[in-house]
UniProtKB/TrEMBL annotation:
Family the UniProt entry places it in: Belongs to the TRAFAC class TrmE-Era-EngA-EngB-Septin-like GTPase superfamily. EngA (Der) GTPase family.
PANTHER family referenced in this protein's UniProt entry, alphabetically: GTPASE DER
Keyword Nucleotide-binding assigned: yes
CDD domains: EngA1, EngA2
Domain named EngA-type G: residues: 3-167, 199-374
Protein name: GTPase Der
Subunit structure: Associates with the 50S ribosomal subunit.
Length: 459
């Protein structure tokens, strides 16, 4: 195994649920292994191609005696000592509780390598906790739902550098050398996107849009099977490839779809595969068939990608067979603006997966979208910007109450998320929020990327 991940946190946040999800059915109970207490479970975990050891410290639910806190502390410390990295879990629905602070303190004292995860993160109810969680001082929280499998792509993103570091070291070192990544004690360091890391792309779209043909064309060999016929099985869920010198990992959604033998199942399956790929991707390429663009299914997946906060590129395929290219392009752009207003400014590129024409522009659009998605604005810039926005168009005064906005800051990237401190945040009308989001989009040059804006009570 490459590295060991310990899941820690107070009871009931969802540690076992995540453990079970990561380990799947191949759960190894460790009662009989030396050095592991009855309260710690260990298993072989996996997300996509990342394999690691997981320790679950959730053995305390039944403990009701008053030594609970002491035992919880000792158990957590033990788990931390056994692990290369700790996934510290809080409950996004419950908010940050005093018990969570106790755990944060243990982790800080132990100088542990920490990934902060806000679980039960499905739905809007979790938004507030995500922001609160920054105050734990453990870096950027990732939002997950252990029960629904959401956020596994982000989790993979933060684990991959640790995995890579350990695999490399393990290859270089003697096999029994204990690999330690915790000397890198600034946890943020592993979150900074490095260029060596491949850019993660998912190509999604309806059956026969040309996904397999496109991926073949990019990876330059007939590694994937193409063709309209169903029933072809492939195992690979992703391929890593340099695309003109840029490392990319491309998630293939067509492959699993072709496992479907029953025709009626096709649409449903390809949607759920697309869903999975979207979660793992940084940039989602929505591949449309020029003959039948913007079908219901295309719109659904594009919308999903936006809601999941992915960078989106629209690629219109089979452009080689299009006769009236100019009129068609105009028509496509109008349809795009009308049907997917939430993706305003996202690039629309015409390609022919078959001939390879337009793929250079597609690549550029992908890289640019990725860059925009990683945009970071400084607090000073944002505050200057906010002052200008407020002057140009002051917030309304609903019911005579004056809404004052004082301070703006960026709380995360990928996609960019901002907090504006405001009085009466609940009274700010949607139109004013849109004005601010559009302002951020234009003034910080972030076309087409999902932008999150949170208004918080300045108290
Ligand atoms: P542990 O004590 O930390 O191991 O927590 P469990 O894994 O036993 O989960 C506690 C409760 O939270 C259970 O009822 C789970 O079904 C529920 N739960 C776990 N993950 C999620 C999630 O992502 N969303 C929601 N809504 N509930 C969850
Ligand atoms: P997938 O189901 O999305 O993976 O689609 P495939 O890659 O299997 O392609 C479906 C069909 O469309 C095949 O017959 C391809 O040859 C054809 N096709 C794919 N891309 C193009 C293109 O750029 N131009 C034309 N004319 N046909 C294409």
């Amino acid at each position: 195994m490459s590295f060991t991940l310990a899941i820690v946190g107070r009871p009931n946040v969802g540690k076992s649920t995540l453990f079970n999800r990561l380990v799947g059915k191949k759960l190894a109970l460790v009662d009989d292994q030396p050095g592991v207490t009855r309260d710690l479970r260990e298993g072989a975990g996996r997300i996509a191609d990342l394999k690691f050891t997981v320790i679950d410290s959730a053995g305390l639910e039944d403990a009701t005696d008053d030594s609970l806190q002491g035992r919880m502390r000792r158990l957590t410390e033990r788990a931390v000592e056994m692990a290369d990295v700790c996934l510290f879990m809080i409950d996004a629905r419950a908010g940050v509780l005093p018990a969570d602070q106790v755990f944060a303190e243990i982790l800080r004292k132990k100088n542990a390598n920490v990934i902060l995860a806000a679980n039960k993160g499905e739905g809007r109810a979790a938004d507030a906790t995500i922001l609160e969680a920054y105050a734990l001082g453990l870096g950027e929280p990732i939002r997950i739902s252990a029960e629904h499998g959401e956020g596994m792509g982000e989790l993979m993103d933060v684990l991959r550098p640790i995995y890579d570091a350990n695999v490399e070291k393990a290859e270089a070192d003697a096999p029994d050398v204990d690999v330690d990544v915790s000397d890198d004690d600034d946890i943020d360091a592993i979150r900074v996107p490095t260029r060596e890391k491949p850019l993660q792309i998912a190509v999604v779209g309806r059956p026969n849009a040309g996904k397999s043909t496109l991926i073949n064309q990019i990876i330059g060999e007939e590694r994937l099977l193409t063709g309209p016929e169903a029933g072809i099985t492939r195992d690979a869920i992703s391929v890593q490839q340099d695309w003109d010198g840029v490392p990319m990992r491309i998630f293939d959604t067509a492959g699993m779809r072709k496992k479907a033998k029953v025709q009626e199942k096709l649409e449903k399956l390809s949607v759920s595969d697309g869903l999975r790929a979207v979660k793992f991707a940084e940039v989602v390429v929505v591949l449309l068939d020029a003959e039948i663009p913007f079908e219901q299914q295309d719109l659904r997946i594009a919308d999903l990608a936006e809601r999941e906060g992915r960078a989106v590129v629209i690629a219109v395929n089979k452009w080689d067979v299009e006769e009236n290219k100019q009129d068609k392009l105009k028509e496509l752009k109008e349809e795009f603006a009308r049907l997917l207003p939430q993706l305003k400014g996202a690039p629309l590129v015409t390609v022919s997966a078959k001939t390879g024409k337009g793929l250079d522009r597609l690549q550029q659009a992908i890289m640019r979208a990725h860059q925009v998605w990683n945009t970071r604005a400084t607090t000073a810039q944002l505050n200057r910007w906010l002052t200008g926005m407020l002057e140009q168009h002051p917030p309304p005064a609903p019911g005579g109450r004056r809404i004052k906005m004082r301070y703006a800051t960026q709380v995360k990237t990928r996609p960019p998320a901002f907090v504006v401190m405001s009085s009466f945040p609940d009274l700010v009308p949607e139109s004013y929020r849109r004005y601010l989001v559009n302002g951020l989009r234009n003034d910080f040059d972030m076309p087409g990327t999902p932008i999150r804006l949170y208004l918080r009570d300045q108290g």
